[in-house]
Amino acid sequence: MRKCLGIFGGTFDPIHLGHLRLALELKQQFSLDEMHLLPCYLPPHRAAPGATANQRVAMLRLALQDCPQLQLDTRELQRDRPSYTVDTLTELRAQLGEQVSLSLCMGMDSFCTLDSWHEWSQLIRLAHIVVVERPGYELPVVGPVADLLRRHRAGADAIQAAAAGAVIIAAPRLLPISATEIRAQIKSGQSPQFLLPDAVLNYIHAQQLYCE
To answer: What is the value of pTM for the model shown?
Structure first.
Protein backbone atom coordinates (compact mmCIF):
# COMPACT_ATOMS: atom_id res chain seq x y z
CA MET A 1 0.00 0.00 0.00
CA ARG A 2 1.42 3.35 -1.06
CA LYS A 3 1.83 5.93 1.72
CA CYS A 4 -0.15 9.10 0.98
CA LEU A 5 0.66 12.50 2.40
CA GLY A 6 -1.17 15.81 1.94
CA ILE A 7 0.12 19.33 2.45
CA PHE A 8 -2.10 22.31 3.15
CA GLY A 9 -0.26 25.62 3.08
CA GLY A 10 -1.16 29.16 4.00
CA THR A 11 -0.30 32.14 6.11
CA PHE A 12 -2.73 31.01 8.86
CA ASP A 13 -2.97 34.60 10.09
CA PRO A 14 -4.72 33.44 12.24
CA ILE A 15 -5.55 29.73 11.95
CA HIS A 16 -9.34 29.26 12.19
CA LEU A 17 -11.97 26.52 12.15
CA GLY A 18 -12.43 26.78 8.38
CA HIS A 19 -8.76 25.86 7.84
CA LEU A 20 -8.89 23.03 10.36
CA ARG A 21 -12.12 21.46 9.15
CA LEU A 22 -11.08 21.64 5.49
CA ALA A 23 -7.71 20.01 6.19
CA LEU A 24 -9.38 17.23 8.17
CA GLU A 25 -12.08 16.62 5.54
CA LEU A 26 -9.49 16.39 2.75
CA LYS A 27 -7.45 13.93 4.78
CA GLN A 28 -10.49 11.76 5.32
CA GLN A 29 -11.96 12.12 1.83
CA PHE A 30 -8.77 10.96 0.13
CA SER A 31 -7.69 8.46 2.82
CA LEU A 32 -4.41 10.27 3.39
CA ASP A 33 -2.05 8.82 5.97
CA GLU A 34 -0.89 12.29 7.00
CA MET A 35 -2.02 15.88 6.46
CA HIS A 36 0.60 18.56 7.09
CA LEU A 37 -0.27 22.21 7.69
CA LEU A 38 2.58 24.38 6.36
CA PRO A 39 2.63 28.01 7.45
CA CYS A 40 4.57 30.08 4.94
CA TYR A 41 7.31 32.50 5.93
CA LEU A 42 6.84 35.26 3.35
CA PRO A 43 3.98 34.66 0.89
CA PRO A 44 5.13 35.79 -2.59
CA HIS A 45 1.57 36.54 -3.79
CA ARG A 46 0.09 38.54 -0.91
CA ALA A 47 0.88 41.10 1.79
CA ALA A 48 3.10 40.16 4.72
CA PRO A 49 1.21 38.51 7.61
CA GLY A 50 0.07 40.65 10.54
CA ALA A 51 1.48 38.17 13.08
CA THR A 52 5.11 37.08 13.14
CA ALA A 53 6.17 33.61 12.06
CA ASN A 54 6.69 32.59 15.70
CA GLN A 55 3.24 33.86 16.66
CA ARG A 56 1.55 32.04 13.79
CA VAL A 57 3.32 28.81 14.75
CA ALA A 58 2.27 29.25 18.37
CA MET A 59 -1.36 29.64 17.27
CA LEU A 60 -1.12 26.55 15.07
CA ARG A 61 0.33 24.50 17.92
CA LEU A 62 -2.57 25.56 20.13
CA ALA A 63 -5.12 24.78 17.42
CA LEU A 64 -3.67 21.32 16.72
CA GLN A 65 -3.06 20.19 20.28
CA ASP A 66 -6.31 18.18 20.34
CA CYS A 67 -6.20 16.98 16.72
CA PRO A 68 -3.60 14.23 16.17
CA GLN A 69 -4.85 13.71 12.61
CA LEU A 70 -3.24 17.00 11.51
CA GLN A 71 0.48 17.77 11.78
CA LEU A 72 2.36 21.07 11.86
CA ASP A 73 5.24 21.36 9.38
CA THR A 74 7.46 24.42 9.90
CA ARG A 75 10.01 23.83 7.11
CA GLU A 76 9.06 26.98 5.19
CA LEU A 77 9.62 29.14 8.27
CA GLN A 78 13.19 27.87 8.55
CA ARG A 79 14.32 29.26 5.17
CA ASP A 80 14.28 32.99 5.97
CA ARG A 81 13.23 33.80 2.38
CA PRO A 82 10.00 33.86 0.35
CA SER A 83 8.09 30.58 0.49
CA TYR A 84 8.14 28.97 -2.95
CA THR A 85 6.02 25.83 -3.13
CA VAL A 86 8.34 24.21 -5.65
CA ASP A 87 11.17 24.35 -3.09
CA THR A 88 8.95 22.77 -0.43
CA LEU A 89 7.83 19.96 -2.74
CA THR A 90 11.39 19.31 -3.91
CA GLU A 91 12.54 19.04 -0.31
CA LEU A 92 9.65 16.76 0.63
CA ARG A 93 10.18 14.56 -2.40
CA ALA A 94 13.88 14.15 -1.53
CA GLN A 95 12.91 13.29 2.03
CA LEU A 96 10.06 10.90 1.21
CA GLY A 97 11.45 9.17 -1.89
CA GLU A 98 9.81 8.60 -5.25
CA GLN A 99 7.06 6.18 -4.18
CA VAL A 100 5.17 8.18 -1.55
CA SER A 101 2.07 9.92 -2.89
CA LEU A 102 2.24 13.66 -2.24
CA SER A 103 -0.83 15.89 -2.66
CA LEU A 104 -0.65 19.68 -2.73
CA CYS A 105 -4.03 21.04 -1.62
CA MET A 106 -5.13 24.50 -2.73
CA GLY A 107 -8.27 26.55 -3.34
CA MET A 108 -9.61 27.04 -6.84
CA ASP A 109 -8.73 30.74 -6.59
CA SER A 110 -5.05 29.81 -6.22
CA PHE A 111 -5.25 27.17 -8.94
CA CYS A 112 -6.64 29.66 -11.46
CA THR A 113 -3.47 31.77 -11.11
CA LEU A 114 -1.05 28.87 -10.78
CA ASP A 115 0.93 29.97 -13.82
CA SER A 116 2.09 33.03 -11.85
CA TRP A 117 3.83 30.81 -9.28
CA HIS A 118 7.59 30.30 -9.29
CA GLU A 119 8.49 27.33 -11.54
CA TRP A 120 4.82 26.35 -11.54
CA SER A 121 5.14 23.79 -14.33
CA GLN A 122 7.36 21.65 -12.08
CA LEU A 123 4.68 21.22 -9.39
CA ILE A 124 2.77 18.44 -11.16
CA ARG A 125 5.98 16.44 -11.55
CA LEU A 126 6.54 16.55 -7.79
CA ALA A 127 3.00 16.07 -6.47
CA HIS A 128 -0.66 15.69 -7.23
CA ILE A 129 -2.67 18.92 -7.08
CA VAL A 130 -5.96 18.77 -5.17
CA VAL A 131 -8.13 21.75 -6.11
CA VAL A 132 -10.86 22.71 -3.66
CA GLU A 133 -13.95 24.24 -5.21
CA ARG A 134 -14.81 27.71 -3.89
CA PRO A 135 -17.92 29.84 -4.43
CA GLY A 136 -17.38 32.48 -7.09
CA TYR A 137 -14.56 30.66 -8.88
CA GLU A 138 -14.63 28.38 -11.92
CA LEU A 139 -11.98 26.22 -13.51
CA PRO A 140 -10.10 27.98 -16.32
CA VAL A 141 -11.05 26.93 -19.84
CA VAL A 142 -8.28 28.70 -21.76
CA GLY A 143 -4.63 29.37 -21.05
CA PRO A 144 -1.73 27.38 -19.59
CA VAL A 145 -3.55 26.32 -16.40
CA ALA A 146 -6.48 25.03 -18.47
CA ASP A 147 -3.98 23.07 -20.59
CA LEU A 148 -2.49 21.55 -17.42
CA LEU A 149 -5.96 20.56 -16.25
CA ARG A 150 -6.82 18.90 -19.57
CA ARG A 151 -3.61 16.88 -19.54
CA HIS A 152 -3.66 15.79 -15.91
CA ARG A 153 -7.21 15.78 -14.56
CA ALA A 154 -8.06 12.50 -12.86
CA GLY A 155 -10.27 10.97 -10.20
CA ALA A 156 -9.50 10.54 -6.52
CA ASP A 157 -8.08 7.05 -7.07
CA ALA A 158 -5.02 8.63 -8.72
CA ILE A 159 -3.74 9.63 -5.29
CA GLN A 160 -3.33 6.00 -4.30
CA ALA A 161 -2.27 4.83 -7.76
CA ALA A 162 0.71 7.15 -8.32
CA ALA A 163 3.12 9.37 -6.40
CA ALA A 164 2.39 12.53 -8.42
CA GLY A 165 1.01 13.82 -11.70
CA ALA A 166 -2.76 14.23 -11.31
CA VAL A 167 -5.09 17.20 -10.81
CA ILE A 168 -8.07 16.22 -8.67
CA ILE A 169 -11.08 18.46 -8.11
CA ALA A 170 -12.53 18.26 -4.60
CA ALA A 171 -15.80 19.60 -3.19
CA PRO A 172 -15.56 19.25 0.60
CA ARG A 173 -17.67 21.17 3.08
CA LEU A 174 -16.48 24.77 3.37
CA LEU A 175 -17.07 26.81 6.50
CA PRO A 176 -17.57 30.47 5.44
CA ILE A 177 -14.84 31.83 7.71
CA SER A 178 -11.95 34.07 6.66
CA ALA A 179 -8.85 35.22 8.49
CA THR A 180 -9.40 38.68 6.98
CA GLU A 181 -12.83 38.85 8.64
CA ILE A 182 -11.41 37.70 11.98
CA ARG A 183 -8.69 40.34 11.91
CA ALA A 184 -11.24 43.04 11.01
CA GLN A 185 -13.51 42.02 13.87
CA ILE A 186 -10.66 42.17 16.38
CA LYS A 187 -9.51 45.56 15.09
CA SER A 188 -13.04 46.96 15.45
CA GLY A 189 -13.45 45.60 18.97
CA GLN A 190 -15.86 42.80 18.05
CA SER A 191 -15.47 39.19 19.16
CA PRO A 192 -14.59 36.42 16.66
CA GLN A 193 -15.41 33.72 19.24
CA PHE A 194 -16.58 30.42 17.69
CA LEU A 195 -14.77 31.22 14.41
CA LEU A 196 -11.45 29.89 15.73
CA PRO A 197 -10.35 27.69 18.64
CA ASP A 198 -10.69 29.31 22.06
CA ALA A 199 -7.02 28.66 22.80
CA VAL A 200 -6.05 30.62 19.67
CA LEU A 201 -8.37 33.50 20.55
CA ASN A 202 -6.93 33.65 24.08
CA TYR A 203 -3.42 33.78 22.60
CA ILE A 204 -4.43 36.62 20.24
CA HIS A 205 -5.78 38.62 23.18
CA ALA A 206 -2.69 37.92 25.30
CA GLN A 207 -0.37 39.01 22.48
CA GLN A 208 -2.64 41.93 21.50
CA LEU A 209 -2.55 40.82 17.88
CA TYR A 210 -4.50 42.48 15.05
CA CYS A 211 -5.52 45.46 17.18
CA GLU A 212 -3.99 48.05 14.84
So the answer is: 0.93
